[in-house]
Amino acid sequence: IIEDRFTHRLGYGDKTGGQRTSFNLHIDPPPILHSFFKWQSSVIPEIVLFMCGEKPGAEYTFSIADSWGIKYKHGEGIMQHNHFPQALSCIYYLKVLENSSPLVLVPFKNCPEYSLSIPIKENYLYVIPGNMDHYVEDNKSTARIVLTTNWKYI
Q1: Taking the C-alpha atoms of 93, 103, 81 and 55 in order, what is their torsion angle to the nearest 10 degrees?
Q2: What is the pTM of this model?
Q3: What SS3 state is found at 112?
Q4: How many other CB atoms are there within 10 angstroms of residue 133's CB atom?
Q5: DSSP code string of 61-120
Q6: Using one digit for the tens of pLDDT, what is the confidence trace for 8-42?
Q7: Element (H, E) at 154
Q8: How high does pLDDT run on average in the chain?
Q9: C-alpha 5, offset from chain centre
Q10: pLDDT digits (tens, 9 = 90+) for 51-100
Q11: 65, 70, 59: which is closest to 40 by C-alpha?
């Protein structure tokens, strides 16, 4: 779907961290992803209601800040990071093969003992607060493709 757009290398300490697209995938997406971004825009209010107990109203709404794809090969991952100052980060797993590494959430930056390893599934959307640290251990499968979208308050 987006194979020709993986043009940037990610750093992962002294290792390779995968390849990513530009950060504006939502601005000029391949035709098949138009419906993906439209669908994601339609579910954000329900996600906010579920996460916060309140539905976004006229006083605060959300917009896509940036979006990109990442392709991990065997042995590639990404170091601990977050997406602050964005409000939400949505991670959609487009391709997940057997033995793909989990998404690891670190809810308390200085307390790694509370990290939570989340098994991932293909065609699932995972939503986390933008300020939550997370990382991906070295991938143990041959390929894994992720679409990430950051949402901001407007």
Answers
A1: 70
A2: 0.87
A3: helix
A4: 19
A5: -EEEEEEEEEEEETT--EEEE--TT-SEEEEEEEEE-TTPPPEEEESSTT-GGG-EEE--
A6: 777 656 566 788 999 999 998 888 889 999 999 88
A7: none
A8: 87
A9: 17
A10: 877 666 656 678 899 999 999 999 988 888 999 999 999 999 999 999 99
A11: 65
Is 14 in a helix, a strand, or coil?
Answer: coil
Report which of 29, 145, 53 is spatially closest to residue 41, judged by C-alpha positions.
29
Residue 102 DSSP class: P
- Cβ-contact 139, 96 below 8 angstroms: no
User: What would the pLDDT profile of 133-154 be if each residue is shown by its tens digit?
Assistant: 999 988 999 989 999 999 998 8
The rounded distance, in Å, linking the Cα atoms of 78 and 106 is 14
- C-alpha pair distances (Å), 148 with each of 58, 59, 111, 154: 26, 26, 25, 19
Total residues belonging to the chain:
154
- Residues 106 and 70: their CA atoms lie apart, in Å, by 20
- Give the position of tokens 């939570």: 116
> Residue 82: in which H helix or E strand, if any?
none
6 token code pair: 């993986």
Token pair, residue 46, equals: 């329900």
